[in-house]
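As the next step, I selected for study a record pairing a protein sequence with its backbone structure tokens, which the following lines show:
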Amino acid sequence: MPRPFRPPPHVYSSVGFDRAAAYRKNLAWLASRRADRTTRVVLAHGLNLAILEAEDGPHAGFLTVADLGRELDESALFLGVIDGVAYFAAELDDPVQATLPLVDLRSVGPVLPPHEAGLLASARALLHWHSTHRFCGSCGSATLPAQGGHARTCPQCGREHFPRTDPAVIVLVTHGDQALLGRSPRFPPGMYSTLAGFVEPGESLEQAVEREIEEEAGIRLRTIQYRSSQPWPFPQSLMLGFRAEAETAQLRIDQDELEDALWIPRPILADPERSPVLLPREDSIARFLIEEWLAEA
């Protein structure tokens, strides 16, 4: 029986809500929504976000402005709109002020409703970006949030700064009926995954795929096929998923990058009782690439 897998769009994608970019420069509209009693906001501290535990499972812990009893301040991050209602994220100075548990998104992301996972992914990525870009890279002056949190401006030199997304390729390499999986020292015990790496300046995605696989595993590729992409807000990457066929199965592992790598036949990888490895997280595009290939048997 084919192994089930989640097709795209993947967890953390912006599905089910309007990012409403046209409103980000409309100061009057943003001000009215920050004061609107129906506006919804998720509270955060650091990179942890409010989560509501309900009978049907966890949900994003969105409160209304009416629940808060006060309008949002200008630092609140505008996330988007659903059915005419605006959604924001707001950073707490003190986690004690939270009325709901504050948790790491990775602990609940796979089981959140898709639109909630997407909203919280946007919130987490923006929160991280603001925390690491408080000063202008050109003149060193303190910057100020703008455009509903989707930009920062420097009052000294006038430069605008925008959220950064780091592109990374992630690749399931196959050779006949076997797949190549590798293990980083950072992984949980027993877990192996597809190979991945960041795109370097001046590289195309295909060149990044070829370079990463040859660097980490000593493998040259015969074919490269794009599969899908996933926003990965840990902290702020875009994972670009590929399938590639290797020319040979002989490995040359870069021990600085991988603790181990091995070829696993499809029937063995598909059987949890026989597989020598644990698969990556269910909310990851790595898991999709593997399970999509297993389902083709």
